[in-house]
Prior knowledge:
The protein is mainly beta. It has a domain at 3-231: Immunoglobulin-like, CATH 2.60.40. Helix content is 4%, strand content 53%. The chain is built from two helices and 41 strands. It has a 24-stranded antiparallel β-barrel. Strands 1, 3, 6, 7, 8, 9, 12, 13 and 14 form a nine-stranded mixed β-sheet that branches.
Amino acid sequence: MSRTTFLIAFLCTTLAYASSINYEVARRDRRLQAVRVTEKLEIDGRLDETVWSTAPVAGDFIQNDPRPDDPASEKTEVKVLYDKENLYFGVSCYDSQRSLVHELKKDFTRTSGDSFEIVLDTFHDERNGYQFAINAAGAKWDAQMTNEGREVNENWDAIWSVRTQLHEDGWTAEIAIPFKTLKFRDTDVQTWGINFQRKLRRKNEDSYWSPLPRIYELNRVSLAGTLEGLEDVRPGVNIRIKPSVIATAGQFSNGDRVYTGDVGLDAKYGITAGLTWDFTYNTDFSQVEADNQQINLTRFNLFFPEKREFFLENSGIFQFSGGSDRGPNRVVPSNDMLFFFSRRIGLSDQGEPIPILGGTRLTGRTGPFELGFLNIHQREQGSSAETNFTVARFRHNLFGNSDVGVMVNNKEVQDSPDFNRVIGADANLRFGQSWILYSYLAKSFTPESPGKDWAGRVSLHYQSNQWDIRTSYTDIQEHFTNDMGFVPRTGMRKIAGFAGRSIRPQKVRKIFRNVHPHGAAEYFLNPNGDVETAVVDYHFQLEFQNGATAEVGLNKQRELLLEPFLINRRHKVVIPTGDYSFYEYLIQSTSDRSRKLSGNFQILIGPFYTGYKHTYTVGSILRLNHQFNASFTHSHNNINLPQGHFKTNLLNIRANYSFSTTLFLNALIQYNSDARQWSSNIRFNLIHRPLSDFYLVYNERRDSTSGDLIDRAIIAKLTYMIAH
């Protein structure tokens, strides 16, 4: 390392450390006393009980965007009460204009309108917690957060309640969170980490009670304030039993009809204040929204995210290593391997459900240790044999949000010698507030493995208000096999880097909030040392004060094909072996999402292997009011190669109507020209009591050329939560 490079790195670290000292001092002053009450509170959003006037106030919120460290432009006040059963929050969000509300649905989109959010670090370990968000109409959002946002499980659902009231000068809210919803230490006196966020969408402003640097969000609980005064409260036995009844009527293209009915059961038991044991029998996921369809123009498998509730809850403990190579917004797996990918259980490679007999899961923490154990037994169906899946996770928390751990996957096929086992160790080490080192080493075991079955990675990440710099080295050997994970490509070494600069232009700050030039490079080497894939991107992004964005870029790529590549099965287009270099120009933009009508587009144009490729994507979102919103996205590929010319179209239409905060109607209609298929997924959902639902789901697929029916089904499902 040159002397200049060393001095720059040292200066960046020093400035980041100095900045963190200021915020550390500020958060020590953010202490809030909870007041015990004996009278019964009516959760109506009015804050008119006398006891609210006696509670200490958390106020003086501080912006972290757009004007870091300035006072919030609108006043926010929060008070905390509690009794034997519940923790209560009284929230007053003053506003000189009418609050912006776009949605009533459960787990609403927090960034599209005004919202208020709470984070609770109940173990006060400065790394894990619970997040609860509301808007002025009383919509709810909740999540489990681990490792200060390294894993955020937005699909976690909790029992809690909220009511809101609109006023001339803003809105108020009363929130009740039962203690049995939360995990915390079983001690007489509780001290928790706590912070609050207010989002004012028309100004695109974020403010916090305990101030945070601009690069961080509410889940940065190491900089949260402190909640004191909780005495003689207990998390409760926390027993939940959730039976379900399912009825299905289906029809296929040959005219056959099928009628089925079944029952299922989920149960949850809180063994200790930190450990939860789950059981599931006859597990059913028929109410889950359909996957968004994709067009694959690569040599590798596409990634589809997990949407099933059982596998999403407490999923953070099963995360292995981390560190995205291309910035925080990358959707695909960030480290070229997901050690445990739960979609391998109960779903075929085509995404079709495979019945699950049942299973069990143990998750939680005890002291500095985090534990996870999952065992699922999958039934036989078609070409899928009866199979047992096991995953075990152990993680030891160290120092300031660092950890080391081990993880084991085991797949056993019933009445067969086939098995797959993978064991791995990972370390995630944070130095100060800006530097993070991610690493892992893993080995797979299969019958008669020829060796070369290791995988490893090391990644270093630096982030400050101005710079985002990442570099990594990954090696996945050719015989590494992980049947319970997601591994896009084996037999490769990858060297990657990313650098981005955030510039806040003062002269044009009324229009532009951030100028973000950034670049990335990835080089994939095969076992012979040849570069099989090289990707180098240069991008320039503008962020406007209203939340709109615009971006231009140049993406360069090299592909060394050692085998012919079938790029389109339907048209039988095959790209021959060879060494190809090509590039594409990028232009994309997104308008202000807080408007009733917003839009986005992306254009990618350039040479592609032996020919040329045009990709156009356009979309829009319509929000008539807080009850109805709809969106559409259309993506078109026009690929002209000497080996063949083909076009693809992908259309996605969504419509959501919220009758109230407990009654919803959602529709998803998709068209895939490559598959020659229209698909519909229409879901009616009634939350008839907390965490208890009635679903009525209609699924249909049709041939887009003939219009003939492929299959359809009507599914009714009723669940009933019994909680103690």
